[in-house]
Amino acid sequence: MLFLLTIIGFLTISSCWSEIFSYNPPKNLSQAIIIGVKKCGTRALLKFLSIHPAIAVASTELHFFDSYTNFQHGLQWYRAQIPINRSSQHIIIEKTPSYFINKSTPLRIARLLPDAQLIIIIRDPITRAISDYVQLRNRHRFYPSFDDWISSSNFTQRTPVKIGCYTQYLRRWLKYFPRHQMHFVDGENLIHHPWEELEHVQTFLNLPVRIHREDFYFNPNKYGFPCLRQTNGCLGLNKGRRHPVIANQTRNKLNDFYLTCNAKLKRLAQINFSWI
Ligand code: A3P
Asked: What is the pTM of this model?
């Protein structure tokens, strides 16, 4: 009986993998994935890219590569989550920020979509940590202040702080993907000059530049964050939230911690953002 169950299990798993690997994507369809980083502006980036006539985007985070259950559905299922609505669309893009830190994801993407173009948006890790903290605090009523939270001796072990040391995760990605298949977006500049970052992404994707400065305005009701001129062009209430003012001591402590990480990032990714 046990033997029979083992055989059935094996056949199920292998048929699933063969289904995953035998999928032939439609010709000329290419795939880009915004793999992270959480709280760096991933939603804004995807929304802005969605107005390009050649791009089709997934409306939700698919968690295909970082969830074993979803991954079992196969590539055909994955692709079906990103419907192509216009004949001009030939690049499909999804964003799932947890891919960046998930251990299994780089290998899974490399095996299934070795040509995928990876987009990584990063921002000043201090602002990123505050943003992550604000999200947590909004979920838990009695949360300590950010300054108290960072004053503890093990603050570097807190996930929202750890994530900002981007290189520890980036190293894993570089084992499976060449640097030229990755593009880094400056999350700080995406807030101030979104058209510049969008131009770089369109060039990286080999697309004609169709998203321009005139497509944006800065909304005072949204703390000055950029929105698209199109209807519903701003992000929802849970994006672009007010951040607490933090003490100089806290900022200095985080600056010291991120100094080495940022220097490594500059070397590893060969990028030079203003905050690095
Ligand atoms: P806050 O809400 O803490 O300000 P993500 O989409 O990856 O979760 O990132 C959320 C962050 O994107 C927001 O964090 C905000 O700072 C930033 N952001 C960048 N451009 C934005 C925009 N146009 N509208 C709102 N938030 C934007």
From this structure: 0.92
CA of 17 from ligand 1 middle (Å) equals: 37
Question: What type of residue is 222?
Answer: K
40 is in an annotated binding site: yes
Query: Which CATH number does 32-125+165-239 carry?
Result: 3.40.50.300
Determine if residue 39 is labeled as part of a ligand binding site: yes
Quote the tokens at residue 221: 């009701």
- Which of 238, 214, 242, 241 has its CA nearest to residue 228? 214
46 lines ligand 1 (CB under 6 A): no
CA atoms of 263 and 260, how far apart (whole Å): 5
Per-residue pLDDT of the chain (276 residues; tens, 9 = 90+): 555 555 555 444 454 455 455 555 556 688 999 999 999 999 999 999 999 999 999 999 999 999 999 999 999 999 999 999 999 999 999 999 999 999 999 999 999 999 999 999 999 999 999 999 999 999 887 889 999 999 999 999 999 999 999 999 999 999 999 999 999 999 999 999 999 999 999 999 999 999 999 999 999 999 999 999 987 899 999 999 999 999 999 999 999 999 999 999 999 999 999 889
CA-only gyration radius of the chain, Å: 20
- Give me ligand 1 centre to Cα 52, in Å: 20
In the chain, domain spans = 32-125+165-239
Instruction: Locate 222 and state its tokens.
Output: 């949204």
Catalytic option among 27, 38, 39, 266: 39
